[in-house]
Specification:
Structural class: alpha/beta
Bound molecules: iron/sulfur cluster
Radius of gyration: 25 Å
Number of strands: 15
Helix content: 40-55%
CATH topology of the largest domain: TIM Barrel
Order of helices and strands: EEEHEHEHHEHEHHEHEHEHEHEHEEEH
Number of helices: 13
């Protein structure tokens, strides 16, 4: 995506991490521990932060959880994470908790509220007002996170009623999407009227269907043109495994490619006993594949087929990836731009030399019927052919040599 296509949103500062404007698309995630269990929560926050989550959210749902927030902050500071922004996720009782636990309100770096979960009828606006007053008092940014599973029912009923009276009524789904957008924008407008500045507000309109969520964010982006807010993107209830990954990536890729979105979360249901960090890894892989951010050198490889020795080919790709992973931390310290390096590992001569033109370093293995040599290319130009049993080591040495010569300092 050309950066000039990105929607110009105000920059929101969250404990020094800036979201919106021309800042990189930020990655965030959420814990699934009981926040009242401070030790487990801190452990998971650190795991997520180490994986690359630049902000971490956790639920603040009870008095016990609220009491533990300052302790969680102190533990993180002591463990070397004083820079990490913490976001409190509030539903139903958030306005009361923030009011009754001012230390918690002061400690958090951002609040997430859901306009559909802050009381219905006459209690909605006073509760919302309380959130805003507390955010202003503590100088905190706020995400107004609309979710279709908990959309403001009063607003939806009103809009459905009005739609039914139209000559050409919209479908229920269309009204639902319009209600999502209206809920976010009306809430943002009210927050500003109450004194919360535009650069303290982030909006989201999450749905669980790819097409719907794309449409909702596109509509939101259209409606807020002229007075934009930073946007948090996410597909809600995306599911787990490959299906969750693909659905989230499909939705977010379309939006990011259209310049919509300033921060992302890929919500995945982890497999039992598996790590929560998969959602952070997915965000990084998505941003890297869209070339919006670079976290590690990119290894392009063909799928392999009957033309090549698949066993050897797969082993070579796996070993190159593994070597890069183990050396990455040190390389980044020495050569920060190494994350932009492009390597191609190809199975045979069919696409090997062609692909090498688009890579910094490429190796093309011999196909089964070809001479047993593996030509290496540097930026499209033939360097030399490798042969023998230690082709992987030879190739990795060429990569290291190339990095040392080409990525000194910031160049
Ligand atoms: S590059 Fe060669 S080995 Fe790889 S998929 Fe294409 S034909 Fe098969």
């Amino acid at each position: 995506m050309d950066d000039s296509m990105r929607i110009k949103t105000p920059e929101v500062d969250i404990r020094g991490i800036k979201i919106g404007g021309q800042n990189p698309i930020r990655i965030q995630s959420m814990t699934d521990t009981d926040t009242a269990d401070a030790k487990s929560t801190v452990r998971q926050i650190i795991e997520l932060a180490d994986a690359g989550s630049e902000l971490v959210r956790f639920t603040v749902n009870t008095n016990f959880a609220a009491q533990k927030v300052p302790e969680i902050r102190k533990m993180l500071d002591a463990k070397g994470y004083p820079h990490l922004p913490l976001i409190g996720d509030f539903h139903f009782n958030g306005h009361t908790l923030l009011d009754e636990f001012p230390e918690m309100a002061k400690t958090l770096d951002k609040y997430r509220i859901n306009p559909g979960n802050i009381g219905r009828g006459a209690s909605h606006d006073p509760n919302f007002k309380k959130f805003i007053q507390i955010a202003i008092m503590h100088d905190k940014p706020l995400r107004i996170g609309v979710n279709w599973g908990s959309l403001d029912q009063d607003l939806l009923t009103l809009m459905m009623g009005k739609n039914a009276k139209k000559v050409r009524p919209l479908s229920d789904k269309e009204v639902l999407i319009e209600a999502m957008v209206k809920s976010a924008l009306d809430s943002a407008q009210l927050a500003e009227k109450l004194g919360l500045p535009q650069n303290k507000i982030i909006l989201s309109v999450k749905m669980s269907n790819v097409k719907d969520v794309v449409e909702a964010y596109q509509k939101l982006a259209d409606h807020m043109s002229g007075h934009p807010f930073a946007l948090h993107l996410g597909l809600t209830e995306a599911g787990s495994g490959i299906s969750g990954l693909i659905s989230s990536s499909a939705a977010l890729a379309v939006l990011l490619n259209q310049g919509i979105g300033d921060t992302i979360r890929i919500s995945l249901t982890p497999e039992p006993k598996s790590s929560r960090i998969q959602e952070v890894q997915a965000c990084k892989a998505l941003l890297q594949s869209l070339e919006l951010r670079h976290f590690q050198p990119k290894v392009t490889s063909c799928p392999g087929c009957g033309r090549t020795d698949s066993k050897f080919f797969q082993k070579l790709v796996a070993e190159v990836n593994k070597k890069l992973e183990t050396k990455l931390k040190n390389w980044i310290k020495k050569y920060p731009k190494v994350t932009e390096l492009k390597i191609a590992v190809m199975g045979c001569v069919v696409n090997g030399p062609g692909e090498s033109k688009y890579s910094d370093i490429a190796i093309s293995l011999p196909g089964k019927t070809e001479k047993s040599i593996a030509p290496v290319y540097i930026r499209g130009k033939f360097l030399r052919s490798l042969q023998g049993k230690d082709i992987t080591d030879q190739f990795v040495r060429i990569v290291e040599d190339f990095i040392a010569k080409n990525y000194i300092g910031n160049n």
